[in-house]
Amino acid sequence: xxxxxxxxxxxxxxxxxxxxxxxxxxxxxxxxxxxxxxxxxxxxxxxxxxxxxxxxxxxxxxxxxxxxxxxxxxxxxxxxxxxxxxxxxxxxxxxx
Length: 96
Hints:
The chain has 4 helices and no strands. It is mostly helical.
């Protein structure tokens, strides 16, 4: 409600609105309190945490080779590395 709408309401209407707001807030607070108390009991080990159903489990994905394992190969194993080294040696010889 806007300010001008509230100003037009009578005292009884304002009181009824306050009662509705109190009831709504009490319901929300009770729900939130129950959720927090359940979490606290789970943390204290009093109850088992809720388990996900099998349908919601993530499906297995194939293993992915990381870049680190690929970089462990020696530079001599790579054709481009040999060519680069040869070019670098040739350039060094030219500039000497």
